[in-house]
Write a structure and sequence with these properties.
The chain is mainly α. Among the domains are: about 225-285, no CATH class; about 295-385. Helix content is about 70%, strand content about 5%. The protein is built from 23 helices and two strands. Strands 1-2 form a two-stranded antiparallel sheet. The protein is globular, with a radius of gyration of 26 Å.
Length: about 425
């Protein structure tokens, strides 16, 4: 009981009060530490265990796997005399969280047997490491082998990859597969379908998916609102929000979607009203992401002094994305005065080393927009002197089951 609710202090008191402790007691305490993220305490307990079994080793392995500590996970993995599916799956997770997908695939290929969790763990690792085309390839391999059928999580992961790639063709194919296998009743699949169609530009499709769904949780509503925000349907998003309030309680993600919708639609007053009502009316405390949305809303509308005031007074250290949004607005509205204030905060917070190619180019463009050519050239020279290379643009097309990426200026691709 204590372990399940992660009250490790109480669990440890009970554990210490036990006159005799069997392996189950040791493992329960170990699991409590790992589940609550107290890996240092777990390791100390692990070292003092009079006897370790497969369950003990798998607990420690999963703890290291969740942290992406591949070396420690490998040491525990090698200590297991007879590995079960949990052992192998945890090792794939460890490699994925560490970012070594070559090793993750090697472990996957060496497995004497696999279950759906094995496939989903590798798929999730590819997704988390932004190897989206590999997600799609692995999904089709799993489907075509037809040994272990994809489940709702498999489909959700594959759809997320399609969304990030903007691959509508593959997204539709996976949607058809989900319909054939009756997996669309899962809210996870529904939410992923809405997200995929929205990011691929299919307004009609994501609306159909939403309104055909039998049950709509907050994640489903948020996906719909985010889709409307992407396409600038702010007025519709606000109407959908009113409909949502009759059925579901909004959360912090709801307001990120709504503020983005207002920002992309120029609904400044409505966006400010929403932001100010979050805590009062809905008991949702604004996070830095909400402040970022508000700054973007005001910046796009040209309310640059107001946007700067929000940054100056917000209870968070401004991140580069927020400062970059306001700096971009200063470029668009040719406001060097506010722009220079933002640059000053950037340099104070991150220094020259903290600036990337986009930051340098934005500052240079700020001065160029106001015909301050000397300063524009100086910032371009600073970027060149720092050794930073401007990131090339990226495009992609689908050929077969693979999505091929192209860097701008690269003419070496065999199909081009």
């Amino acid at each position: 009981m204590y372990s399940s609710i992660q009250r490790t202090d109480e669990a440890r008191k009970v554990f210490d009060s036990m006159e005799s402790k069997d392996t189950v007691a040791w493992n329960s305490m170990l699991d409590a530490y790992v589940s609550s993220g107290n890996l240092d305490f777990a390791l100390k307990l692990f070292r003092f265990m009079p006897k370790r079994d497969l369950f003990s080793l798998n607990i420690m392995l999963s703890g290291y796997a969740n942290l992406g500590n591949m070396d420690s996970a490998k040491a525990v993995f090698d200590e297991i005399p007879v590995k079960n599916l949990i052992s192998w799956n945890s090792m794939i997770l460890a490699c994925g969280n560490y970012g070594d997908m070559e090793e993750a695939l090697r472990v996957f290929d060496e497995m004497p047997e696999r279950d759906v969790i094995s496939w989903n763990t590798l798929l999730g690792a590819y997704l988390n490491n932004k190897m989206f085309d590999e997600v799609i390839l692995l999904f089709y391999k799993m489907k075509d082998e037809d040994i272990i059928p994809p489940d709702y999580l498999t489909v959700t992961t594959a759809l997320s990859a399609c969304a990030d790639l903007g691959s509508l063709e593959k997204g539709r194919e996976i949607h058809i597969y989900a319909l054939e296998k009756r997996l669309t009743s899962s809210m996870h699949v529904t939410t992923s379908l809405i997200d995929m169609y929205a990011k691929c530009g299919c307004l009609e499709s994501f609306l159909i998916v939403f309104y055909k769904s039998q049950v709509r949780d907050v994640f489903c509503w948020n996906a719909l609102l985010s889709g409307l925000a992407i396409h600038g349907y702010g007025v519709i998003a606000l109407k959908v929000f009113d409909e949502m309030l009759q059925r579901t309680k909004p959360d912090d993600v709801t307001f990120i979607a709504l503020l983005n919708a207002c920002s992309h639609s120029g609904l400044v007053k409505e966006g400010q009203t929403l932001f100010n009502s979050m805590e009062i009316n809905y008991n949702v405390t604004p996070k830095i992401e909400h402040y970022g949305c508000l700054v973007d809303l005001l910046g796009r509308a040209g309310c640059l002094e107001h946007a700067y005031k929000v940054i100056d007074e917000m209870p968070f250290r401004p991140g580069k994305s927020i400062l970059g949004a306001l700096l971009g607005a200063c470029v668009n509205h040719r406001d060097v005065v506010i722009g220079e204030k933002v640059v000053k905060i950037l340099l104070q917070s991150y220094g020259d080393d903290g600036l990337n190619d986009g930051d340098y180019m934005m500052v240079s463009n700020l001065y160029a927009s106001c015909e301050c050519w000397h300063e524009a050239d100086r910032w371009r020279a600073m970027m060149n002197d720092s050794g930073i290379v401007k990131t090339a643009g990226l495009s992609s097309i689908t050929i077969g089951n693979r999505v091929h990426n192209f860097l701008a200026g690269n003419f070496d691709f065999e199909f081009s």
